[in-house]
C-alpha cells in the first residue's frame, strides 16, 4: 500500500535538534532562551538547532506586539506546527482494532474502530492494512503526509526488533509485527507494549509533562504499569519492566495464568473480579459490566470483591512507590469504570504500605477510552520520527 506522504524525514538528526524539538513540543511555545534553559544547552546550540526546523516548517516563530525583542537574538517564542505532519496509531485488543490519525502534537483528528475476524496474524494484518488505508484516505483532506504508524499491543513487546514476543490476549508468540505492518501499509512502523505507549503519550502530551519520575498503572483486562525514571520510559534489559500485574499481593491467593498465586492481576483484573463475584454471590454474571451492575445494586458480596481488588491495587501501587519513588502515579484503564467502588480502598492500602516519603506520591486518576491508547501508539511513532 503506498503512503500518501512524501518521504518525510526529520530535518535535523543531531541530538541537540531532537532535544530542542521535543522540549518545544512538550512545553512550548518557548523562547529560545527558555528552550535553552529547559534543555540544558547553550543559546548558540539552540539557535543552530532551531534554524533547520523552522526552515522545514516543523517549528514556527510567533511574533506578536506583546513580545519585546531582545538584543542580539530573537525573543519571539517558537512552537511546533502541529499541522505539519500526521501520524497513525493503532491499538489492538483481543477482538477489535482502534485506529486514530493525529497531528504532530498528537491531537486526534480522526478515530475509527473495526472488529477483528480472528486473532491470528494472518487475520489481523489485513484489517490493519484496511484501517490504515482508510486513515490515509482521511489524511488526504488535511493536505499533509502521514509520516509514521505506531501499533500498541498488550504483552511482551520488543520495540527495537519490532517483535511481539508474547501477547496473551491475541495468543501471539514471536510475531515480527513491525516488518509485516510496514510491508502491508508502506509506512515506517513502531511497535510497542500498549501501556508503555500510553506512558509515552502521558510523558509528552499528558499528565506526565514536566515530571522526571512518574508511573502509569492501568487496570482492566490486565494490570499494567509504565515507568518513567529520570525522564526516560523504562523498558528494562528484557523489555518487561513494570510488570506489577504479577507482583504477589495476596498470600496463597487465587491462581494466576502466569503459574503463580495471589498476583495482583489474579485479584484485580476484570476477569478475576468477574469470576470472584460469581463464586461469592452465586449470581452467574457474564462479564465485568454484569459484575459492576450487581455491585452497584448493593450486593454485599460483589461490593466486597471490589473492595478486595482496591486493596490489592493500592498495595501494588505502594510497591512501585517504594521501589522508584515517583512524583505521581496515574491510574487509568477500562477498570476505572468501577473506581467509585474501590477508590477508598486503593488510597487506604497505598497509605498503609507506602514507606516513609514514598507516601507523598500523588495518586491521580485519568479515565481514558481505547482511542487514547491508540493515540499512545501514534505518540511512539512521533517519538521514533523525532529520533528520541
UniProtKB/TrEMBL annotation:
Listed Gene3D superfamilies: 3.30.420.40, Winged helix-like DNA-binding domain superfamily/Winged helix DNA-binding domain (1.10.10.10)
Pfam families: HTH_24, ROK
Matching InterPro entries: ATPase_NBD, ROK, ROK_cs, WH-like_DNA-bd_sf, WH_DNA-bd_sf
Family: Belongs to the ROK (NagC/XylR) family.
Protein name: ROK family protein
Species the sequence originates in: Streptomyces erythrogriseus
Amino acid at each position: 500500500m503506498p503512503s500518501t506522504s512524501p518521504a518525510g524525514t526529520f530535518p535535523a538528526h543531531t541530538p541537540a535538534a531532537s532535544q530542542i524539538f521535543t522540549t518545544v513540543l512538550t512545553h512550548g511555545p518557548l523562547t529560545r532562551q527558555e528552550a535553552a534553559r529547559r534543555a540544558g544547552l547553550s543559546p548558540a546550540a539552540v539557535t543552530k538547532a532551531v534554524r533547520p526546523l523552522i526552515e522545514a516548517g516543523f517549528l514556527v516563530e510567533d511574533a506578536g506586539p506583546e513580545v519585546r525583542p531582545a538584543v542580539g537574538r530573537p525573543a519571539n517564542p517558537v512552537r511546533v506546527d502541529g499541522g505539519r505532519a500526521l501520524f497513525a496509531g493503532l491499538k489492538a485488543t483481543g477482538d477489535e482494532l482502534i485506529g486514530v490519525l493525529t497531528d504532530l502534537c498528537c491531537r486526534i483528528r480522526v478515530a475509527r474502530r473495526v472488529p477483528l475476524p480472528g486473532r491470528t496474524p494472518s487475520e489481523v494484518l489485513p484489517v490493519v492494512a484496511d484501517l490504515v488505508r482508510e486513515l490515509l484516505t482521511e489524511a488526504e483532506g488535511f493536505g499533509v503526509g502521514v509520516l509514521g504508524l505506531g501499533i500498541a499491543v498488550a504483552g511482551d513487546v520488543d520495540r527495537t526488533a519490532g517483535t511481539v514476543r508474547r501477547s496473551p490476549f491475541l495468543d501471539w508468540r514471536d510475531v515480527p509485527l513491525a516488518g509485516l505492518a510496514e510491508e502491508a501499509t508502506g509506512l515506517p512502523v513502531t511497535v510497542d507494549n500498549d501501556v508503555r505507549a500510553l506512558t509515552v503519550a502521558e510523558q509528552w502530551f499528558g499528565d506526565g509533562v514536566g515530571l522526571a519520575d512518574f508511573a502509569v498503572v492501568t487496570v482492566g483486562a490486565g494490570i499494567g504499569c509504565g515507568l518513567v525514571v529520570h525522564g526516560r520510559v523504562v523498558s528494562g534489559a528484557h523489555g518487561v519492566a513494570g510488570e506489577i500485574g504479577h507482583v504477589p499481593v495476596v498470600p496463597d491467593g487465587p491462581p494466576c495464568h502466569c503459574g503463580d498465586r495471589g498476583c495482583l492481576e489474579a485479584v484485580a483484573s476484570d476477569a478475576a473480579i468477574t469470576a470472584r463475584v460469581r463464586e461469592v454471590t452465586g449470581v452467574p454474571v457474564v462479564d465485568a459490566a454484569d459484575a459492576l451492575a450487581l455491585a452497584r445494586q448493593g450486593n454485599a458480596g460483589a461490593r466486597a470483591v471490589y473492595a478486595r481488588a482496591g486493596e490489592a491495587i493500592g498495595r501494588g501501587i505502594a510497591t512501585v512507590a517504594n521501589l522508584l519513588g515517583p512524583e505521581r502515579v496515574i491510574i487509568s484503564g477500562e477498570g476505572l469504570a468501577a473506581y467509585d467502588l474501590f477508590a477508598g480502598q486503593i488510597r487506604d492500602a497505598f497509605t498503609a504500605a507506602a514507606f516513609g516519603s514514598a507516601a507523598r506520591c500523588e495518586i491521580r486518576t485519568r479515565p481514558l477510552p481505547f482511542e487514547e491508547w491508540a493515540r499512545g501508539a501514534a505518540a511512539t511513532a512521533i517519538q521514533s520520527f523525532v529520533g528520541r
